[in-house]
Design a protein that fits this description.
single chain; alpha/beta; Spore Coat Polysaccharide Biosynthesis Protein SpsA, Chain A; two-stranded antiparallel ribbon; 7 helices; 24% strand; IspD/TarI_cytidylyltransf_bact; isoprene biosynthesis; Nucleotide-diphossugar_trans; 2-C-methyl-D-erythritol 4-phosphate cytidylyltransferase activity
């Protein structure tokens, strides 16, 4: 691991629309601290260089929050794009501008709204990617699943054949950069789908049921309950 330089691109461009809040969800507080700060702190170890990609319109808010909470975890700020895809592209360009040899760089991409990512998953992802090249944490579904066809017909899926994908999704930098050189496609829902489209297989590792993405108001209540117990 010492021969590789590690980065994480934390994508944080949420608007809070599904939170019914005027405050972008990444700035909502968990135990009186913005959830984005919890996320960044999770990666503040093991010589991981943190690249935070966010909307330029949030720059003043973030600066003010960092001052208020005396948040001094080192991180580089990069302007976000019109979609998550374009935001990751911007983060990648920043890294490429600062690294001459992408073959010795490992990059994780993580959702800013997943503050409970564990040290175990982070370290395991960076360990596994050295051999696997493209690593994604995933968990089994506890619910029954159905798929809807274009004609509106739905049918059951075998639950044991389905996995729920999480982040961080981790790759060799050159593989991720080459994949993101492609044009945007609405079918790209995450980094794994972009890399897979470029021809690389995706390898799954065990995720964590606590590694939730804060999306709805109930998620804030659940998160605070976990933190206080």
């Amino acid at each position: 691991m010492s021969d590789f330089k590690k980065y994480v691109i934390i994508v944080s461009g949420g608007t809070g629309s599904r939170m019914n809040s005027a405050t972008p969800k990444q700035f909502l507080e968990l135990n009186k601290v913005p959830l984005l700060m919890h996320t960044i702190r999770a990666f503040n170890a093991s010589d991981i260089h943190i690249v935070l990609v966010q909307n330029d319109t949030h720059a003043d808010i973030w600066a003010s929050l960092c001052t208020k909470h005396q948040f001094d975890v080192p991180h580089s700020l990069v302007s976000g794009g019109k979609t998550r895809f374009h935001s990751v592209q911007n983060g990648l360009r920043f890294i490429v501008e600062n690294e001459a040899d992408l073959g010795s760089v490992l990059i994780a991409v993580h959702d800013g709204a997943r503050p409970f990512v564990s040290k175990k998953i982070i370290e395991h992802s960076f360990q596994e990617v050295i051999d696997k090249k493209a690593v994604v944490p995933a968990i089994e579904s506890r619910d029954s699943l159905r798929i809807i066809s274009d004609g509106g017909i739905n049918k059951a899926l075998k639950r044991e054949k389905v996995r729920l994908v999480q982040t961080p999704q981790t790759f060799f930098a050159n593989i991720l950069y080459d994949a993101y050189a492609s044009d945007y496609n609405a079918e790209f829902t995450d980094d794994a789908s972009v890399v897979e489209k470029s021809g690389y297989p995706i390898h799954l590792i065990e995720g964590d049921i606590r590694n939730i993405k804060i999306t709805y108001p109930i998620d804030i209540a659940i998160a605070e309950s976990w933190m206080n117990n």
